[in-house]
Design a protein that fits this description.
By secondary structure, the chain is mainly α. The chain is built from 16 helices and 8 strands.
Length: about 350
Amino acid sequence: MSQASTARGSAYLTALTQEIEKKLQRALVTQSQRLNLMQELFADVALEVDVRARDIILSKDEDGISSAEGDIENHLCFYDVLADHYVKVPENGKPILDLIVQLWSQSFASNIFALLFHKWLFEVQLENSEILLRYSSALVQGATNVFWIDIQTNRRCFLSLFHYLLEEVALVPMRLNKIALQAQRDLYLVLSRFMFFYNLVNKLEALLNQFPIFPNAFLVGGPADIFVIELTDQLQKLKVEPVLLHYLSHMKVLQDRKIPTASYKSVFSTSLPVVLALFMLEFCSVLYQSNTVLTPEDAFFKLEEYEKTKRHLNVGSLIVFQSSVHVGWNSIQGPTYAFSLYQLCLVSSTPFPAMNVL
């Protein structure tokens, strides 16, 4: 890249930094607009870099900001380039950092800190243990918040942040040891919860090998046990159907893995009823809308074509559905989980023509 292009890119990032600083200053002095301003700033730094801005600030052969590092799956956001910029030119990020600290208790403050300074934190040497703990905790909390935003929207805007924390921090002891010990443990728990979502299950073995020692390890077990416990808890919190199904599709990575201590944490018994419930709700909705009844013989009949249709059930419709789902998880030294669903009664307040199912 030519010196002129480098200067142009640096000037662009400096201008962005100044705009961020102005918005933080406004949030600091304007209490009534503080929440809105912080939310706007978070949205601004999370925006995807457009083509024009990308041409200004990025180059394939630039040493400081590499598209291979920041542009994961062709999705580059402003926080990616700003995080790199504050590592290269830390003095540019200091005013922003000072303002974030003053707004520490505000919503979105930890999110913004995690996005803009997740690389800077591992490149500087902080002697003050209290400040280190504060920054470390904010990083983990902010990262958790933005990962949940991705979960709720079923998008992966913050994939590069997760990728960096996993591959450049959790798997690199020299960097990991720069943050507080409790933050290290919390970071591994966060990575365990979101690894399936960000499609990085191929790094599971490496992550388990680097797990720090937990004080309660004698109760809960080793790294694999902790991973399963966190995964199970995560499954219980998922409310977005495509995300839940995405998690379940990655369960095969646990095949043939011995996790004796965590065998009481029934991942499949937790997730299967949820999936089956979602399926049955969709299934019943389709039958209801199409006036179709499924008989035990697995035959479909249109109501107007079925000779035995003689009465209406005012309480709703009854669907008899027999299904048995058996899921074996040989890796856990526990029972094979089986879930049987024999019948489902869907009660509707609207009278619905139903047939006698014999």
